[in-house]
């Protein structure tokens, strides 16, 4: 635990404690919501395609809105932007719960409401992350990277643990209503943060939002380290993350389980992510982070093959934990490297591109896997996707030395991210 002292220093600041507590509450609600709407879509349609479509509608708006959101977060009051976007998520969850309770919710209406939530989340992500330099001293920012990610993965453990019993005993409505309450709480904490004016707002507008968003794309694409690493992460997310986005069909068709099985699998993913995240945080150095970001993809691909190749549920739980652990190592290492190397003036826009990858790419993978699963079954498409991921791993290992030199040598501390 002595090696984790940096995390303690990050949490010693009042504003950081408020920020991370609100993050833990909102992300716990988010995971309860994800489990609930996935199960609801499965109950409504019994179709892996429509479960994938629900995930797609929640995550895909990032394709259009994340680059714009990054430019907006770099030029307006970030606290206010957080409040508006988080409040919209709370309203969306309340609408889903209310319409479902009234018996008026259709699969089409659910998809439309998930698009609404996805748009709001695309604006919330870069706004929250860009506030981090105003919450902790610069020396504690590297620890805040890990702390922010650990909050997300603790929520990924707690949320499914709550969702399973709530859905089993009370149905989907109270689970989704809980998410609305969680985001109301997170929204109300934002005005309590004491953030300096210089950190609440990025820069004065230098052009249109579209022009600044395009500049962010050009900057990342031309950077010799950030561009290749983000491309690697995007392809890996498309190929591998879809499995985690459409777990209900896997739970019922392969393992013959119900909501309890879904909650157990998601919780195991969260447990693996939590412990691996603590390990990454304890390293306390940039050296070797590129190798971790690349190599973790290979571990996740092999663990996913083991997950779908077996019908033994206990072994699947172990594979799920390995999937979560590898995904966490890849995510934290990639975020830290990208933000460490990014120019401060471009940081919000780089963060928005990472948000695009973490939201849109899993959505695309979930949609493709769900559609193929209806035709070929779930096992074959998943295994083929993992074999392709191993080929991408080979490309990443080939580029690794050049990326490491650029990404690991810069001396600036990174900004926290999920």
TrEMBL record:
Keywords: Cell membrane, Membrane, Transmembrane, Transmembrane helix, Transport. InterPro entries: MFS_trans_sf, TM_effector. It is a multi-pass membrane protein. It is found in: Cell membrane. It comes from the Bacteria. It holds the Pfam family MFS_3. The keyword Secreted does not apply. The chain crosses the membrane at residues 18-42, 48-69, 171-193, 225-242, 262-280, 292-309, 378-397. PANTHER family: INTEGRAL MEMBRANE EFFLUX PROTEIN-RELATED, STAPHYLOFERRIN A TRANSPORTER. This is MFS transporter. It comes from Paracraurococcus ruber.
